[in-house]
Amino acid sequence: MNELLAQLKNLQSRIKDIQARLGDRTVDAESGGGMVKVTVTGRQELKEIKLDPICVDKRDIPMLEDLILAAVNQGIKKSRELASEELKNLTGGLPIPIDLF
Questions:
Q1: Which of 1, 6, 14, 15 has the fewest CB atoms within 10 Å, i.e. the most exposed one?
Q2: Could you report the per-residue pLDDT of 21-64, keeping only the tens digit for each?
Q3: How far apart are CA 95 and CA 84, in angstroms?
Q4: Phi, psi at 47, each rounded to 5°
């Protein structure tokens, strides 16, 4: 039993290390053929939005909003995939819900 508790503490410590590393790693995503680009951390924090100047026309605001939404969602999806890969390496392939973060 003590050995199992020690293993769980070790696993918890390693998960915390991965969480810290994920905060430093980023993924990039884009929509609209590159007109909107975003950078998201491995902890699902939006770090940067870049807009192509061609997007900023008052008549195109609804389209721009849709493009930003699509790019952010794609960035978050990629960030979750990054976190999932890191956890798979730790757990030997056992699935762990990303919602734990």
A1: 1
A2: 888 889 999 988 998 888 888 888 888 888 888 878 778 878 88
A3: 8
A4: -105, -30
